[in-house]
Amino acid sequence: MERCSQGHMQAKKRYLILLSAGACLVLLFYLGGVQLPAASRSRHDRSRNGHRPEQPWPHFSDPLHLFLPWDQTDTEDYNLHISPRQKRDINTSVYKGKRCRMDSCFDFSLCRKNGFKVYVYPQQKGEKISESYQNILSTIEGSRFYTSDPGQACLFVLSLDTLDRDQLSPQYVHNLKTKVQNLPLWNDGRNHLIFNLYSGTWPDYTEDLGFDIGQAMLAKASISTENFRPNFDVSIPLFSKEHPRTGGERGYLKYNSIPPFRKYMLVFKGKRYLTGIGSDTRNALYHVHNAEDVVLLTTCKHGKDWQKHKDARCDKDNAEYDKYDYKEMLHNSTFCLVPRGRRLGSFRFLEALQAACVPVMLSNGWELPFSEIIDWNTAAVIGDERLLLQIPTTVRSIHQDKILSLRQQTQFLWEAYFSSVEKIVLTTLEIIQDRVLEHASRSSLMWNSHPGGLFALPQYSGYLGDFPFYYDTLGIRPYPKFTAVIHAVSPLVSQSQPILKLLAAVAKSQYCAQIIVLWNCDKPLPAKHRWPATSVPVIVIEGENKVMSSRFLPYEIIVTDAVLSLDEDTVLSTTEVDFAFTVWQSFPERIVGYPARSHFWDSNKERWGYTSKWTNDYSMVLTGAAIYHRYYHFLYTNYLPTSLKSMVDQLANCEDILMNFLVSAVTKLPPIKVTQKKQYKETMMGQSSRASRWADPDHFAQRQTCMNKFASWFGAMPLVHSQMRLDPVLFKDQVSILRKKYRDIERL
């Protein structure tokens, strides 16, 4: 009986202890004192909601913060007092929409009616906008995605400058919270995209933007994997205000050196932070620096009061820092260290990419730019801040073949996605469009191989073999026939007209599948019996609105990969057609043909010039007698802006120049001229219905104007000079004519 009562008493005590502990836990939860269970639940939810699996590193209860200086100003001497309410607001604004995904926070119905269209809010009077944000808005407004009608929009972009949300920055826009909430189309941020380069401020450098983003997507620099919402947000690179809006410089790799080693193995030159967030990694770099092939330089000399905080190493570091030229190091190093700063991102990242210096990332927790589409393992070395001392050994162990591959990929990625604000913005929009139009999205190969996702439009085809860029990768060849498209602008009045002779010659080619006559003449279509009988189908179609650009429309009746584009007055023999097509089969991504032209820089007039002089140098092959892939019809129609195509149509001129600009912009290569045919110019001038146009000085002046207008839109001159001409084997050789396959070319 006594044993029973004792057991009853002990049970009662245990019950009271458990009850007290439970009450304490409830109280702690209520006061916000216990966060760990919520964090673990969040991690569980992340894996369930499609996030990438956790890295195999231990999870620390104190997560990595997000940092790097709001740039040229040092802000360590400011100490903002943040009240508990402000802290609560910060946490709310950063984490409120953390579970947002496309299926839960994006209205796809807005995109079904008009496709992927982007609306930019009109700029409000008195609102200051930084140059960088203006470049972003101008890019969107000049793109094929833009609409001025919010009723047609699928995506909305604010005109309020959200790039710099550091409260200590002069670019900081005040009262943004109220301004955003008052926007009539805001709708809690649904279908909105917010661009941001800098967030948070000293001392914490959190990812707070200072206003509630609601259900909006973020295109953000220095974003952490902890706060990044996969397939919803877009991680963008940190870029400076000097970053060009369009065009941009090409990568610095001019040729491949074998072996690919440079003067230095690993370099870095930048600020060192003596205290606070982001200081640990840069403060430890001196342990690895050897002043020979590993040169890692830091300076304490930044900010107004740096001397107050200087440590014992500062003077020595500063002296060493001043000995080296940063650009010389950048261009002469195999690897470039990219450590985190106050925030996770760094300008060093883009600088290294452009210089073909393989980036070595030391920024734990940074979601790398465009990580959704780019395989960074092919262009960078992903290091760990905790293993800094192992970095030199790691990079030394990388085989030279791998180094060469990494270096080449840095150049491709730089030129495809990062060399201008325009490319960064368009890549962001294309990523979102791929999510919206999931059935027509790009594969990883399209994003990570030449020419890149901006020029490989998935709306054209879901099969890589339909594009001119992937034949080697797939181990296939283009279809061994071509479709001839003859552009007719003159009425058919005589059976001896050049167009009929051309049609007969082309039809005899063993590679010709069909001939399309594009009737852009004001006169009615000729009767069928007026066209000569041929062994291949001849299809006559009327040009859309009778404009020049109609010759490059993606007609469904073109079923072959190759298009032989011809003017009505072109004079070509069957042998020449056969030879040109044979050459094109080896270069399916380029324009291959006969009439060549060139461009030059006129230093007196400070503009681009156009020349038709017969020289050994050319940069264009005119589409009056050229073969190219039919994909370029689709790209011409869907990629180029209406303004350029309208200019071509109004002038009835320059469509051939614009096509050359486009193809060279895509390939970064010149066209290919085949065996020179001097008769082309002479014959055309003698009997062509367009002879007067070619002799007209206004026509030539228009082409000069076109060159500069096109170069302005592309942001740079994409045309590439070449001195290569491909001739048949034994061409002009002193051997029997019977030994030559294309013997007729020599008899012309």
UniProtKB/TrEMBL annotation:
Q: What is its main location?
A: endoplasmic reticulum
Which cofactor does the UniProt annotation name? Mn(2+)
Question: What is one term from the GO cellular component aspect held by the record?
Answer: endoplasmic reticulum membrane
Specify whether Flavoprotein is a keyword of the entry: no
Kindly indicate whether the keyword Translocase belongs to this entry.
no
Which pathway, metabolic or otherwise, does it act in? Protein modification; protein glycosylation
Catalyses which reaction(s): 3-O-{alpha-D-GlcNAc-[(1->4)-beta-D-GlcA-(1->4)-alpha-D-GlcNAc](n)-(1->4)-beta-D-GlcA-(1->3)-beta-D-Gal-(1->3)-beta-D-Gal-(1->4)-beta-D-Xyl}-L-seryl-[protein] + UDP-alpha-D-glucuronate = 3-O-{[(1->4)-beta-D-GlcA-(1->4)-alpha-D-GlcNAc](n+1)-(1->4)-beta-D-GlcA-(1->3)-beta-D-Gal-(1->3)-beta-D-Gal-(1->4)-beta-D-Xyl}-L-seryl-[protein] + UDP + H(+); 3-O-{[(1->4)-beta-D-GlcA-(1->4)-alpha-D-GlcNAc](n)-(1->4)-beta-D-GlcA-(1->3)-beta-D-Gal-(1->3)-beta-D-Gal-(1->4)-beta-D-Xyl}-L-seryl-[protein] + UDP-N-acetyl-alpha-D-glucosamine = 3-O-{alpha-D-GlcNAc-[(1->4)-beta-D-GlcA-(1->4)-alpha-D-GlcNAc](n)-(1->4)-beta-D-GlcA-(1->3)-beta-D-Gal-(1->3)-beta-D-Gal-(1->4)-beta-D-Xyl}-L-seryl-[protein] + UDP + H(+)
Give the protein's function.
Glycosyltransferase required for the biosynthesis of heparan-sulfate.
- List the Gene3D superfamilies: Spore Coat Polysaccharide Biosynthesis Protein SpsA, Chain A (3.90.550.10)
Q: Where in the cell is it found?
A: Endoplasmic reticulum membrane
Q: What is the originating organism of this protein?
A: Maylandia zebra (zebra mbuna)
Q: Which InterPro entries match?
A: Exostosin, Exostosin_GT47, GT64_dom, Nucleotide-diphossugar_trans
Q: Where is the Glycosyl transferase domain?
A: 482-731
Q: What is this protein called?
A: Exostosin glycosyltransferase 1
Q: Which residues form the Exostosin GT47 domain?
A: 113-398
Disordered as annotated region, ranges: 41-60
Provide any one GO MF term from the record. metal ion binding
What biological processes does GO assign it?
heparan sulfate proteoglycan biosynthetic process; ossification
Recorded topology in the membrane = Single-pass type II membrane protein
Highest taxon listed in the record's lineage: Eukaryota
Alphabetical UniProt keywords: Disulfide bond, Endoplasmic reticulum, Glycoprotein, Glycosyltransferase, Manganese, Membrane, Metal-binding, Signal-anchor, Transferase, Transmembrane, Transmembrane helix
Report the sequence similarity comment from the record: Belongs to the glycosyltransferase 47 family.
